[in-house]
């Protein structure tokens, strides 16, 4: 739970996440630096033991996604773009489900993991992930998600039962957890939660979006930010960049940051539309 309004259960009036640190607000010189800064922090959290699937990067518009996918790929973090192709619709997953079901008709009386892993190895899966991002790593993540399902099976589960369960999952789109950071828009994140959430792009023109000019439109943008803030169970990071590709003028931090009474790291006063806060350390 996050308290985004000043003086609501917080002595200093700043936004807080229940059972977590005070949310941080970071400033970057441009959008690429912001994407790489977020990616670096995500990498550090994963290295500290946080599960990738418990982390999300939530964006205002889909067009922001490519930059963050690139930056996370540069530091070796796999991503899952919410709203993209469903897990059981991926070609490698359909191939694996078909191969497992076929093999289950003939194989019996051997450990479940051996049966499943033998089939997955025939499709290119390995115990250790391939180095670097890209299509090969994405394929491995899909096959590895199926391999991890074996760990969730009750003792004594047969290969045939596993294959039948996999078919049911495919038909109902009951997707397994994939060890990947979620990238999603604020709209598509409604109703979901993650332990750690990053909210980049909190600059005037992006949130609120440039075409939101009336009071009702601004209120809707404010509600979208509230959606993003309240997706975080334990840790929240917000950020903005001063310069955007194709824009000649320097951007101001979102007016909503001032409403939250947030401060950039090491800043002596709240982020303001009228005045630039001190630069955050990166």
From TrEMBL:
UvrD-like helicase C-terminal domain location, by residue?
1-234
Q: Where is the composition biased (Basic and acidic residues)?
A: 255-268
Say if the entry is tagged with keyword Flavoprotein. Answer: no
Keyword ATP-binding carried by entry: yes
**Family matches, as Pfam families:** UvrD_C
User: Could you give a GO molecular-function term held by this entry?
Assistant: 3'-5' DNA helicase activity
Keywords, ordered alphabetically: ATP-binding, Helicase, Hydrolase, Nucleotide-binding
Annotated spans, Disordered: 255-282
Tell me, what is an example of a GO biological process annotation in this record?
recombinational repair
> Matching InterPro entries, A to Z?
DNA_helicase_UvrD-like_C (IPR014017), DNA_helicase_UvrD/REP (IPR000212), P-loop_NTPase (IPR027417)
Q: Which SUPFAM superfamilies does UniProt cross-reference here?
A: P-loop containing nucleoside triphosphate hydrolases
Q: Name one GO cellular component term.
A: DNA helicase complex
Query: What is this protein identified as?
Result: ATP-dependent helicase
Q: Which organism is it from?
A: Agromyces binzhouensis
């Amino acid at each position: 739970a996050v308290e985004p309004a000043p003086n609501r259960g917080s002595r200093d009036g700043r936004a807080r996440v229940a059972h977590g640190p005070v949310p941080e607000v970071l400033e970057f010189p441009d959008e690429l630096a912001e994407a790489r800064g977020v990616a670096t922090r995500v990498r550090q959290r994963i290295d500290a033991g946080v599960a990738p699937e418990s982390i999300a990067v939530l964006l205002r518009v889909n067009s922001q996604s490519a930059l963050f996918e690139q930056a996370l790929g540069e530091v070796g973090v796999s991503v899952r773009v919410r709203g993209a192709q469903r897990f059981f619709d991926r070609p490698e997953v359909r191939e694996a489900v078909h191969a497992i079901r076929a093999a289950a008709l003939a194989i019996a009386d051997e450990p479940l993991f051996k049966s499943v892993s033998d089939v997955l190895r025939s499709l290119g899966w390995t115990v250790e992930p391939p180095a670097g991002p890209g299509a090969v790593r994405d394929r491995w993540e899909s096959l590895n998600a199926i391999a991890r399902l074996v760990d969730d099976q009750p003792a004594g589960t047969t290969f045939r039962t596993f294959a039948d369960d996999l078919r049911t999952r495919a038909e109902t789109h009951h997707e397994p957890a994939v060890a990947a950071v979620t990238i999603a828009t604020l709209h598509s994140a409604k109703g979901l939660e993650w332990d750690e959430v990053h909210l980049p792009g909190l600059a005037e023109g992006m949130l609120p979006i440039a075409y939101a000019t009336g009071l009702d439109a601004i209120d809707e943008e404010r509600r979208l930010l509230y959606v993003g803030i309240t997706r975080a169970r334990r840790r929240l990071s917000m950020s903005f960049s001063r310069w955007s590709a194709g824009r000649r003028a320097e951007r101001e931090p979102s007016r909503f940051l001032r409403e939250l009474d947030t401060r950039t790291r090491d800043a002596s006063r709240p982020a303001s539309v009228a005045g630039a806060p001190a630069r955050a350390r990166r």
